[in-house]
């Protein structure tokens, strides 16, 4: 593709001329800085997320990936009981779009559901200190009933 000079396309660390520099710390730093700056410059066009029932919610669940499906089901179960819960589902994890709901989460009970050690909750805590985490690291799914029961117990909802 293109004409003239040869072009090296690689996922390895390289300098501005495309020459591999996988073991050059300076090249690593330059490339990392360049890529992060590029992402930040286009952050608004990169961020993707979905929101469900956020307009009237008192409790916001934040979940991504397959856990978001369980969270949405749990929200529907809670809503059937008159408990106003909503879901913020980041589709892109970084940048994550939490800035879009930072004002909303300040006023609400916030619960982050993750199938890991809680990486996303740390990002959420940049906008709100008091956040409940529901984590599972056993390689098993987090089921809607688990989320539903934790919310009922932790939020003292009878």
From TrEMBL:
<keyword id="KW-0560">Oxidoreductase</keyword>
<dbReference type="InterPro" id="IPR009014">
    <property type="entry name" value="Transketo_C/PFOR_II"/>
</dbReference>
<dbReference type="InterPro" id="IPR033412">
    <property type="entry name" value="PFOR_II"/>
</dbReference>
<dbReference type="Pfam" id="PF17147">
    <property type="entry name" value="PFOR_II"/>
</dbReference>
<dbReference type="GO" id="GO:0047553">
    <property type="term" value="F:2-oxoglutarate synthase activity"/>
</dbReference>
<feature type="domain" description="Pyruvate:ferredoxin oxidoreductase core">
    <location>
        <begin position="58"/>
        <end position="145"/>
    </location>
</feature>
<protein>
    <submittedName>
        <fullName>2-oxoacid:acceptor oxidoreductase subunit alpha</fullName>
        <ecNumber>1.2.7.3</ecNumber>
    </submittedName>
</protein>
<dbReference type="InterPro" id="IPR052368">
    <property type="entry name" value="2-oxoacid_oxidoreductase"/>
</dbReference>
